[in-house]
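pasting input
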Amino acid sequence: MTTIRAELGQVLDGVAEIHLPNWDGIRQQVGFIHGGVVGMIADSAAGYAALTKAPEGAEVLTIEYKINMLAPATGDKLIARGSVIRAGRTIIVTKSEVFAVTNGAEKLCAQMQQTIMVTNG
Amino acid sequence: MTTIRAELGQVLDGVAEIHLPNWDGIRQQVGFIHGGVVGMIADSAAGYAALTKAPEGAEVLTIEYKINMLAPATGDKLIARGSVIRAGRTIIVTKSEVFAVTNGAEKLCAQMQQTIMVTNG
Amino acid sequence: MTTIRAELGQVLDGVAEIHLPNWDGIRQQVGFIHGGVVGMIADSAAGYAALTKAPEGAEVLTIEYKINMLAPATGDKLIARGSVIRAGRTIIVTKSEVFAVTNGAEKLCAQMQQTIMVTNG
Amino acid sequence: MTTIRAELGQVLDGVAEIHLPNWDGIRQQVGFIHGGVVGMIADSAAGYAALTKAPEGAEVLTIEYKINMLAPATGDKLIARGSVIRAGRTIIVTKSEVFAVTNGAEKLCAQMQQTIMVTNG
């Protein structure tokens, strides 16, 4: 996450945010932020959200995710907001929404649904 | 892709490869390559595979993908192999397999299924 | 849908419901409603939601969907609630939530994310 | 599965088939077999394939799946072929391909990627 300059934002019970400034190292040919980077911060935000529902000392692993790219990832920065849909003992299902922020206005640019496994760490 | 040091490998009709050396900037805390990076090269390999089936001058956009993480992404390098499942005029469905390569031995570490849209460029 | 006794419920701008009574022809060995049936009503509800955002006379086709099974589908009936996440000219992205209803109390039992293509009909 | 007249076909180590004749109770308005039914047999075939990799007496649960609809589900019958991509102790990842069969000729009409959990039954 350091490589792409992403930072963990607010973390509350069942939710977590990742913030990512727009810089040239994460943009693809046509000037948008690379879809893989969008997937990366969506995955991380949802993983941190899941971690808030896991037992003390446990770890969380991404089993799988599915992401729809909805609009170009552009603007001043991206914010990925992860949240828990359902937390079981072994499996936590989450979602993550990624917003492109331009002059403070947010536009939804990706939507993810993810499955997390809780491990003993 | 330059930021993560990924390189386009062999591209044939309906298939494409991305190669990624394992280096510290793409590893997460526990020493494996970050899942987001795995997703990024899987997405790119399948996108390049789709591009071989698109008309001259057209471009391809990732609508969505789903990826299962199967094993830790570790070893000397990763190879993502994308291939086309079905190419329609507007929609191309692809898959991508990511292998962790250690001393030349390959182990499947992620499997993706993806939907691509062909645009006029 | 008639075969499984599902019925279209409320349809508003960007949202649609499917109702399905619990009966023995849709239950699997262990007594829960079959996951395939849950997928079917989730798919249909989101498709009807998408149709409210398509131009007059157009049709909608499911390109793909991803569904997480969250809890056993049991109780008196199921309600699938589809809604539109983003409506483009060609592609509409939706979600669908399926609730198991027992004595009027609802419990989320499945969550779907879906991609729809608008066609000229 | 009896309600839709599906039958379990060949089952080998890591693979399983479901066969479904085309009949009017499973067709939607425009004459194709309903996508939900396609999802149902794809899910079942992959689940049976996973079961061949689970310990004696264990059961398998679908955590989630993602399916792309590739071509109209039409013809004399459908065959869903499930197979195991990777079998872990708790999680089994599978895929399923659904073929539309007309006069013995097969055409791929849907592709699924699925996550299964092994339970103690």
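fyi The radius of gyration of chain B is 14 Å.
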